[in-house]
Design a protein that fits this description.
It is built from 7 helices and 19 strands. By secondary structure, it is of the alpha+beta class. The chain has one domain: Anthranilate synthase (4-Layer Sandwich). It is globular, with a radius of gyration of 21 Å.
Length: 368
């Protein structure tokens, strides 16, 4: 039962031992991984097996939770009261002014040819009286289509989120990734109408990913652009599939950070972020998820005399998500992180409003 899993996680937290509890998009099962000690493990070359938690800064190490103990239970959705809505949020004057100013500066740099796109973010600190596990359960109830998680290590901190974006999925040698860009608020009964800014941003991200993978995979294919709903927001999405051969580390390093969380070209965009955002993103816009998990797959034999018999094969699977719509817990406070892609067609005030809409994804499950 889920209650038993939550109790085990709560006990892990009381002992200040590392854990992660999570549910994948459109899934029913909740998984938990409990580490038996407080040692801080790092990934060397992505051949390891465990749950990874990576920062935005590629120079910083990726954390690995070994599979010391794994638990799972089915989740049953409940009706829980929602918290703050977007329209009820109070806009902080200095915070708004700073974000609008750096967006304007970003547009100026695009005009100069410094880069084509840059993703600019901000953080917002709010009081949080609810327990992390209570907020995690609200996320499960609210965001069926997102990867919902609560992650903790005593030497790093506690993070929680509901992210809609896949960095990559692998099954043996098959790979799937996606480009996700453009944002519009969800309005009941209406389909999104995308403008030139969002369509151009999506095209740029898709082209970048294809180019980054070109010499590392074979058989690249991409889907048509589609509208994808994540919580109270719409995004543009393109799925990209390919085949790879034992070079997962080089693929991850080529994809992270994508233009959807940093910009392009990568280096000048990252330098601009470091100079103008004026805060450390830490694990926001990093990635997290299952690395090299073994999975059993049932298959039906094709031989005529064994038509109704099945057999099981073992596959190696990796499933990593970009750490968006997330927050960090510190004492009785939560720091929420949000951002958006800036292109030549961006409007600074609309970019601010986009971050307000995105922050509501987390704020509505924090604030009563």
């Amino acid at each position: 039962m889920l209650k038993d899993v939550l109790n085990r996680v709560e006990g892990q937290l009381s002992l200040e031992l590392p854990f992660v509890i999570y549910r994948k998009p459109n899934a029913q099962e909740v998984h938990a991984i409990l580490q038996k000690d407080a040692e801080l493990h790092h990934v060397r070359d992505f051949s390891e097996k465990g749950f990874v938690f990576a920062p935005f800064n590629v120079e910083s190490p990726t954390i690995l939770l070994p599979l010391h103990e794994q638990l799972k239970a089915d989740f049953v959705k409940e009706k829980l009261p929602k918290g703050l809505s977007v329209n009820e949020q109070k806009e902080a004057g200095e915070e708004k002014a700073h974000h609008v100013q750096i967006v304007r500066q970003g547009i100026l740099e695009i005009g100069k040819g410094t880069f084509d796109k840059v993703v600019l973010s901000r953080k917002q600190e709010v009081a949080c009286a609810n327990s992390p596990l209570a907020i995690f359960q609200r996320l499960l109830n609210t965001y069926d289509r997102a990867f919902c998680y609560l992650w903790y290590h005593p030497k790093v901190g506690m993070w929680l989120g509901a992210t809609p974006e896949i960095l990559l999925r692998t099954s043996n040698n098959s790979l799937t990734t996606m480009s996700l860009a453009g944002t519009k608020a969800f309005i009941e009964g209406e389909q999104p109408v995308w403008g030139q800014k969002e369509l151009e941003e999506q095209r740029m991200v898709t082209e970048y990913i294809n180019k980054a993978l070109q010499d590392k995979v074979t058989g690249i294919r991409q889907s048509e652009v589609e509208s994808s709903k994540a919580g109270n927001l719409w995004h543009l999405r393109t799925k990209i599939t390919a085949v790879f051969q034992n070079n997962l580390s080089s693929i991850i390093r080529a994809l992270h950070p994508t233009p959807a969380v940093c910009g392009m070209p990568l280096l000048p965009a990252k330098n601009f972020i470091g100079e103008f955002e004026q805060y450390d993103r830490e694990y926001y816009t990093g990635f997290l998820g299952e690395l090299n998990f073994k999975q059993e797959v049932s298959r039906v034999r094709s031989q005529r005399n064994q038509e109704n018999k099945s057999y099981k094969t073992i596959k190696t699977a990796t499933e990593l998500f970009v750490n968006l719509r997330c927050m960090k817990f510190t004492d009785a406070k939560a720091t929420v992180f949000v951002g958006g892609g800036i292109t030549k067609d961006s409007d600074p005030l609309k970019e601010w409003q986009e971050t307000v809409a995105k922050s509501n994804t987390i704020l509505q499950v924090i604030i009563d």
